[in-house]
Structure formats: structure tokens, C-alpha cells
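ok posting inputs for the flavin mononucleotide job
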Amino acid sequence: MTELTAALGLRPEQVEAVLTAAALAPSVHNTQPWRFRVLPDRIELYADLERKLAATDPEARELRLSCGAALFNLRMALQGFGVRPLVTLVPGAEAPGALAIVRRGGTLVPDEEMRALLQAVPARRTNRRPFHEARVEVRQRRALVRAAERERSWLHVVATREERARVKELVQRAHRIQLDDTGVLAELAAFTGHRPDATDGIPPASAGVRPEPQDEWTFRDFQASDRLPGKDYESDPLVVVLCSFYDSDLGELQAGQAMQRVLLTATTHGLSASFMSQPVEVKSVRDELRRALGGMLVPQTVLRIGFSTPVPATPRRAVSDLLITPNHHVDA
Ligand SMILES: Cc1cc2nc3c(=O)[nH]c(=O)nc-3n(C[C@H](O)[C@H](O)[C@H](O)COP(=O)(O)O)c2cc1C
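and the output
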């Protein structure tokens, strides 16, 4: 185990609190594919490629989105301690293989929005349950769109009936392709179901309800329990496609931060969210979705947003398991 040192002007226990907040980020199948190297003048973020889902996420795109989400939490937590984070994404030779370097850019007093987003970090959850029929208000939708913009990304709202039908069809098609992929199914099985003492993966209590053929949208089966009669999905959730402007590691890290800012903003508005990643995971369908969005924006994830009842938290690995020793060489 590596001992945590002081960094960025923070005491070791404050650094631990910052990394704990980072690790509360969402990640594909709750793989938590991030690692941190803590040095006195910086915190470096790395991908944990051993945690990559080779079949579901062969290009490690969702892994980088997840790391981007952790980076956003890390930024918020630093601000909570009055540290202004200076972030270099994909720093290259300066820290080979790192996804980001975070340095101290002086002090700041967090504004109201930052404080609210930081408070939302431990409260946010992926909620796979059916939502209530209530509609997301226009002002809330605008806040979500702005959250993505603030992180140099784009939140496309699936608005028209035709577009909804198109996206629904792409979700279904990708879902069917994945049901025929034994690698994808094995990864899903490895991270779901009853796994006593697991510190990763999706426990049954977080799995939502079992998908049924009449459902309008196609959700993944995370080995959920059977559905109670009358517990059907809402008819009209807000469906959004989070997009980056670049098809690159940089774009994915930006989109990951934007995804987390959108999810935390949703939490501050009392909104719940879940993912429908199938159409961005299957390359051919993702290309089609990209064309449907006009060809420029790069679709990174699809979210369903609405109102629901609270769900329990998923487990997390200990911070000590996420650390890279300061002198350890990291393969790019
Ligand atoms: C890039 C990415 C893709 C995801 N895709 C899905 C998905 O397709 N379906 C789903 O139910 N959850 C999906 N999730 C949610 C994760 O399973 C969830 O974040 C993880 O289990 C941790 O739980 P929490 O979000 O409640 O903390 C995704 C998360 C990320 C970051």
C-alpha cells in the first residue's frame, strides 16, 4: 500500500478526501478504471487498462469517459478545499500515459454552483428504475444543456417524434447485436448479480427492474429482480445524447467531465438519470447515430433523465488500491 502524501498545499487526509470524491464517479459496469499518482506539486490521473472491458469497450472510449467523470469530481473536491485546479489533459511527454495532470493554480472561494455540484457528488446515483410520468421542466433542461457547454461538450436533446423513433431503433439494434456477442455478455455477467463483498460492479439492489418486451426503450438486463405488476417504465423520459466536438482521447475526457457535470446538475435539480450506452458501444450503430446528428458531433453517451425514487449506492474500491507509487513507471 502507498502512503498518501501532502499535495497541492493539502494535508494527506484532505488529499484522501479529494481522491475519495473522484472515485465516486460513475464508470462503465462500475469498473472504476482510474489510478492516481500523487506528487507534492500535482495529481496525475491514469487509466487502469487492466479494468478495460475488452469486448464492450474495445477502444477504451467509455473507460476514458469514466476517467473524465472522476476528473470532474476531483476538480470539484479541490475547489471545496479552496484550491483552484489547473488541468492539463493528455499531457504527453511530461507524464507519459497520463490522461491528465492537475496542479494548484492558487486559491479560490467556490461559488454557489460549485458548492451545490460538490454536495451532489455523494448523492448522485445511476437510477435504472421506472421514472414517474412528470416531465423535466424547460429550465431544468436548459441547466443540463448549459452544464455540458461549460465543459466544452454538447448535450443534444432528442426532441422530435421522428428523432425519438430513430434513436429508439438504434438502441434496439445495438442491443440485439450485443446479445449475440458472448464477450459482451460475459463482461456483463462478471460485473452483475450477487457478488458478496465486491468493491466494484453493479449489485442487485442497483440493477433496476427486469426489462420486458413491451418496454418502449431497450435497457440492459443487469440481473434485476422481477418487476411488480404495474411497475412499467415512464412513457416519455427526457432522452439526451452527450457529444464531444473531437473524436479523440481529448474529446472523450472533455465529454466525461461534461457527462459528470450534467449528472451532478441533474442531481441538484432532484432529477434521476440512467444510461443507454448500447448505440455508442457498437461501432457501426455509433457511426449511424453520428450521421443522424449531422456528422460533426461525436456521440459519447445516451442518457435518460426524469424523476424517480431514491436508490442505494454502488460499492467503491479503497483509495489505497487506486494509488500509483510516485516513482513507478506507467506504461502508456
Ligand atoms: C461511460 C458509461 C457508460 C455506462 N453505460 C451504462 C448502460 O448502458 N446502462 C446502465 O444501466 N448503466 C450504465 N452506466 C452506469 C454505470 O453502470 C454506473 O455508473 C456504475 O454502476 C456505478 O454506479 P453509480 O453510477 O450509481 O455510482 C454507464 C456509466 C458510464 C460512466
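notes: Residues 61-80 form the longest helix (20 residues). Residues 26-30, 62, 65-66, 69, 125-126, 128, 202, 206, 220, 274-277, 301, 314 surround flavin mononucleotide (CB under 6 Å).
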